[in-house]
Amino acid sequence: MEFPDTPTTVSRRCFLGGCAATALATGTALSAGTAAAAESQPCGKLPPGTFLAKKADVPLNGGVVVYFDDETSVVVAQPKKGTYTAFDAKCTHLGCMCSEVDNNLIICWCHDSRFSSVDGKRKTGPAKKPLPQIKTKIKGDDIVVA
């Protein structure tokens, strides 16, 4: 399956469907004795300069989830006016994709883990580790990987 060179912003409904599939796959992997799926790794595959989002598309106290491929999704948030943060969207609990940002919380609906959009730290839920942060910079009106 081929994926476009540019990311696609995915709706909550689409991500929830993908989350269910990820949970099923993760459960299968864990039952086979492989806990690797539970570990979230930063999106190291994204080279510097990779476009993440337009500043105008990232709401204040909210954010967007950007989908690159089956393994790489990024949450881009604006926790305060003019400040943008980005995190690997893979939940550190069991590897489901976080699918929403609301009131400065990044939400994984699989098991209701919630993370701060300021620093990625776990706020509630079964996840114990923070979301890995992705360094960003502003390039004109774009938010890109630093």
TrEMBL record:
Signal peptide: 1-31
Gene3D superfamilies the UniProt entry points to: Rieske [2Fe-2S] iron-sulphur domain
The protein's required cofactors: [2Fe-2S] cluster
Classification via SUPFAM superfamilies: ISP domain
Keywords: 2Fe-2S, Disulfide bond, Iron, Iron-sulfur, Metal-binding, Signal
Iron-sulfur recorded as keyword: yes
Stretches assigned to the Rieske domain: 50-145
Record bears the keyword Iron-sulfur: yes
Function as written in the Swiss-Prot or TrEMBL entry: Iron-sulfur subunit of the cytochrome bc1 complex, an essential component of the respiratory electron transport chain required for ATP synthesis. The bc1 complex catalyzes the oxidation of menaquinol and the reduction of cytochrome c in the respiratory chain. The bc1 complex operates through a Q-cycle mechanism that couples electron transfer to generation of the proton gradient that drives ATP synthesis.
Name the record gives this protein: Cytochrome bc1 complex Rieske iron-sulfur subunit
Organism field: Lentzea indica
